[in-house]
Amino acid sequence: MASNNEIRYLTPVAVETTKKKYCRFKKIGIKYIDYKDPVFLSKFVNEQGKLLPRRVTGTSLKFQRKVSQAVKRARYLSLMPYVTDLYK
After folding, report:
1. Per-residue pLDDT for 72 more than 90?
2. 40 CB contacts (<8 Å, ≥6 apart)?
3. What is the value of pTM for the model shown?
4. CA–CA dist 4, 16 (Å, integer)
C-alpha cells in the first residue's frame, strides 16, 4: 500500500503557464511592411538567413505573408543576404 505522503498523478501537473503569443503588427497597427528596412526584417530571420515560422514569432498569417514577401524583395535588391552565418 502506498503511504499518505506519496502522491502520484497520471498526467503531469502544469507548473507554469506561457504567455499568449500576439501579432505585433496588429497590436501596434502597422499596415505596410517596408522591404527597405533590413534592420526590422532581420528580426524575422534566423542566423542562417531562414525565415522564422509563425509559431515562433507569433505573427498572424496575413502579416507572415507580407513579411516573407518583404524579405524576398529585400534579398533581391541585395539589402539582405540570402545565406549567411552569424548574420545578427
Report:
1. yes
2. 34
3. 0.73
4. 26
